[in-house]
Amino acid sequence: MTQQGATKWADVDPSAIAHNTSLVKQLVGEKTAVMAVVKANGYGHGAVPAARAALEGGATWLGVSSVAEGIELRRASIQAPILNLGYTPPAALSAAVAARLALTVYDREGLALLKTASTEIGVHVKVDTGMHRLGAPPDDAVKLAVDVAGDPNLRLEGFWTHFADAKDPAFTRGQLHAYLDARSALMRAGITNFLSHAAGSSGLIQVPEAWLDLVRPGLIIYGVRPVRSWTDLPGLRPALRWQTVVTHLVTVPTGESVGYGRRFIAQQPARVATIAVGYADGLYRSASERGRAIVRGVAVPIAGTISMDQAALDVTTVAGVMVGDVVTLIGQDGDATLTADDLAEASGTISYEVLCAIGGRVLRRYL
Ligand SMILES: Cc1ncc(COP(=O)(O)O)c(C=O)c1O
Question: Which residues are annotated as catalytic?
Fold first, then answer.
């Protein structure tokens, strides 16, 4: 059965996002605020519904990666503080100010730009402690923060860093110490009234010392752990189910092939179901012949090469498959469950990328 005439959809449960956020809040306690990271369209879940749900669950800040993402939240009348974790280009400054976004600064040029606005702006100075992406070296970051604090318009709201390696708590602790040294220098300069933040999902799970004033979870508020073997926060609930439909069924005689490149060759007469999702929808081509999907409660293999708009499933073992049957790519159907991690593993990537990649043609439905 198609849903609202759609042939592919993602059901998003905002109450799961609220619940997951509340689990994070319970873990970090009263003294640590939660900034829900809702960049990249809320990791594919929809930025506005994800933000609203996270706020309901106890987040008091929202994190985005661009001015445009922040403006999208403001247009939806979301009033909570929003931090642009990324770069603010000169051409976006006035829009960012109008949207009351807090902005990240990590170099002299960025600071000079914010000063040109001659208006009140909340600033979070970012320290590079080993990621070497955005951020100022610790000594420079301290100087930037001192300069921000001394400016009549700018307000130093935060001093922060970002961890590089989810699987290496020792390296994370080293980054944290570099950050704390820089923060101490800032405090010795007499500047104390700002938010210290460092940890995303993995940091907050693995290194409680990194909770500081605020944590910035993304993935776990969507109910997925950064590393699939982790069992922390046992109550987490995945917030997204991705489904499509069977659009055609064909019996493929022994020796004949399915799809581009003829990668699937029927070893016996095979029953093959075509589905209405392809790589343009975010079903990675690298999951060809490796991924699975659930039909009538049975997880079956993807047969052959995933194409742009379609893929094929080998449903030989499943009785009674019909055109219109619902097919689950992420989620549960009967006794079978496939997670974002399952699809990521089959695609040779991580759950983050699988969720963010779910395309614009996939209708988001909110439960
Ligand atoms: C600066 C920053 N903070 C927090 C996060 C959230 O990370 P995670 O989804 O691992 O919790 C991200 C995501 O990449 C990020 O770039």
Answer: 39, 260
